[in-house]
Amino acid sequence: MKHVISDVMTITKRQLLQLARIPELLVFSTIQPVMFVLLFRFVFGGSIETGQPGGYVQLLMPGIFVQTVAFTLAATAVGLAEDMKKGLIDRFRSLPISRGAVVIGRTFGDALLNILVLTVMAAAGYAVGWRPTSGGLSIFAAFLFLFMFGYALSWIGIYVGLAVKEARTVQSVGFLVTFPLTFLSNAFAPTTGMPKALQYFAEWNPVSTMVAACRQLFGLKNEFGATASSWPSQHPLETSLLYMFLLMAIFIPLSIRKYKNTSN
Amino acid sequence: MKSVIAEHLVKTYRNGEVKALDDLSLDVEEGTVLGVLGPNGAGKTTTVRILATLLKPDSGIATVAGIDVAKHPDKVRELIGLSGQYAAVDETLTGWDNLVMFGRLYHLGKLTSIKRADELLERFSLTDSARRPIKTYSGGMRRRLDLAASLIVQPKVLFLDEPTTGLDPRGRQEMWGVIQELVKGGVTLLLTTQYLEEADQLADEIAVIDHGKVIARGTSDALKKQVGGERLEITVENTDITKTQEIVSRISTSAIHTDVRTISAPVSTGSIALMEALRALDEAKIHPLDIALKRPSLDDVFLSLTGHVAEEEVIAQPVKKKRGGKK
Fold first, then answer.
1. Which residue in chain A is spatially nearest to B151 when comparing CA positions?
2. Which residue, among B54, B49, B35, B145, has the nearest Cα to B96 in the 3D structure?
């Protein structure tokens, strides 16, 4: 037990070392979100009427932030599946290290990478006109929310990676989960244009509540995306926290158990 | 004292459809090398995975250094080293990064980990490539690094699962050298292999397994004797066959066998028999197209052993097991 912390740190450090050894990894994991910022800002920005001061980019940035942290689910899953395939997980499991250290260490590593990605994106957003109007504390809280959301999702990634095993399949599964979740939401366009059934889904979608929560924390009026007077759209902060708590309460024990019992 | 004991291990996959281990028992005397020899799918890897705490058997007991692997896996993990069929290391990191990381995971201090990594890299002639990512290593270098990673804390028992499968002849030779050095140092080793020659080179004793059970056990010499020892193989022109058969019969220890133009004859005196045959053929003015002294291969050992076992199996095992398994 006394080695838990050092074991977790060693595994996390391994991931940071990977980034240091292959800097391309770092470049590509930040290029994609920046590309999304630019594409949406300049492709849709002109045609979507928002009624918010500052234009579409104010609404867009929270959406892109949430989408990007949601995509880390796939990255976590793929990384783990590759370790499984190469036998590295077997080796870890044959070592006298604390249970869970390997997967916990990986979620920490992915979380650290998320901090970096969010920072780069915030800078890119600022460059194309994104200006949060709330105070420093609220802005900080928004990023804390994003960070925590990414962390909670990485535990789903751990579970998927351990359960599916084949890296390419994992990649597809990851996108199959994250793409509908991010697009059936208020992230890029108002949900009012969707068919009724999808509107209900979109309202309760954790991505929507996260986006709404971030918009609120960045100082926007909570109107774009709030399609009805449903509870989640009225209380995005509380709902988002609840979702994160639920995800972790379910997937942390599930993943650690899966890791212990896993075998090829 | 026995360092490794496996008793009546049974392991099935897919709800019992595929029987990986079928009452397998073996043991390894402390300080010796047991070679577990068998074809793909015989149950070698499953055996190693159970002994190394990665897999739980359906039934049966396994102990390493007297500790039950199913009951106290954590204690066993402190005593063993494992190196698998693939190089189970982080390929994006350098060799040095990997060894330091594993040192830390064995709970060595930071400085001790670094010192140990340097020592092992030196010992396995990897110092020059220590700072390069493993991706750039040759197959042989990867395996050596993988082996080094399993030796970070001097393990009491070392498991090597097909340490040379997939290596080129040079890589194999290098790996054998490294393992022989280890064995001299007195480690208890369980090694699996598909190659009789490898078991021959490295193991004190060999257990031949097939369909998840041990079908023969003994020293390499004993096994080869069981198969019939060396054979002389001579290929000649059609016109010389009869004459050659006559000559070879005089040298051979038992019945000779002719397949098209190749005459195969069991011999007991090795190269002496080969020279005798050459002299006799030369005197008879026969020029063989090919002549060789063949040692028994795994195929030979296998053919002779499984041919014998298969009959028993039909009686004892009404449900025929298939290797590779189907849905």
1. A95
2. B145
